[in-house]
Amino acid sequence: MADPIALLREQQEKRLVALGTQRTDRQQRLVKLQQHEAQLTALIKDYSGSGQGHILMMANRSQMVRQLQPLVEQCQRQQLVAQADLQTIEGQWRQQLGRRQGLVWLEGEKRRRATSLQQRLEQKQMDEMAGRPRRA
Asked: How many independent structural domains does the chain possess?
């Protein structure tokens, strides 16, 4: 029969791996959103640049900036949601890591106790054998 602590540890490790995968996915999503915002901000900066040129070009640049600004704001809102989501997953991952580490410690403690008991039993047997009179 399998050790219930080992089975529970294996389940906890699987959960930890799943949370780790979710955590990595959320981190990558946040990085992509940050990169997207940086690109949009760079575009706005480019369009907001020098005001020289034909009046229609200046009007087009101004219109483009007005269209890009809501996209930047939307991206910032998405980043806030992604950061909150990442923090939630991060907290769950840390909690799960603690559970698994506790079970690993418990398994080790159980092994140490079993080894200690076995050594005491062996010593007791040796002591009993040493205490018996020898036959010639």
From this structure: 1
CA-nearest of 21, 16, 22 to 101 is: 16
Q: Decide: 96 and 15 in contact? Cβ < 8 Å.
A: yes
Q: Which residue has the higher pLDDT, 14 or 6?
A: 14
Task: Judge residue 85's burial from the number of C-beta atoms within 10 Å of its C-beta, 0-12 exposed, 13-18 middle, 19 or more buried.
Answer: middle
pLDDT at 136: 57
| Alpha carbon of residue 19 to chain centroid | 6
Q: What is the CATH number of the domain that holds 123?
A: 1.10.287
**Full-prediction pTM beyond 0.90?**
no
Asked, for residue 103, whether it belongs to a domain, the answer is yes
* Phi, psi angle pair for 116, to nearest 5°: -65, -45
CA 122/CA 117 separation, integer angstroms: 9
Q: Look at residue 17 and tell me if it is in a domain.
A: yes
Structural domain containing residue 117? 4-128
d(CA 121, CA 98): 34
